[in-house]
Amino acid sequence: MNGEIGADISFLLNENIFEPVRDDMMKSIEEFQKLNLPSFDNMPNVFTHNDLGVQNLIVSDDNKKKGIIDWEWAGSYPICEEYFRSYKPII
């Protein structure tokens, strides 16, 4: 990808549902596409839990770390994977 992000956003020009916010959306999308974002293509793979969140931490009553559970998704992933997965909502 070399830092380029491309998407077909032409449908936004024709859908009435976006009419109230279309101009702001298009401006934001165009500005985002101009950003020179770093590429993660050449990052090394590392062993990671891949589902690390409070729902998988065991903590004692006095707030001491006791363990990490739920290792079913653990494996060798790009080094940034755990970071990005940490932004998913915790239910």
Describe the 3D structure.
The structure is a single chain. The chain is of the alpha+beta class. The protein has two domains: 39 residues, no CATH class; 41 residues, no CATH class. Helices cover 20% and strands 16% of the residues. It has two helices and four strands; from the N terminus they run H-E-E-E-E-H. The strands form two sheets. A two-stranded antiparallel ribbon has the order 1-4. A hairpin with a 5-residue loop joins strand 2 and strand 3. The longest helix is centred in the first third of the chain and has 13 residues. The protein is elongated and about 55 Å long. The two termini are 33 Å apart. 0% of the residues are buried.
Question: Which helices and strands occur, and which strands form pairs?
Answer:
Elements (H helix, E strand, L loop, with lengths): L21 H13 L10 E4 L8 E3 L5 E4 L6 E4 L2 H5 L6
Antiparallel strand pairs: 1-4, 2-3
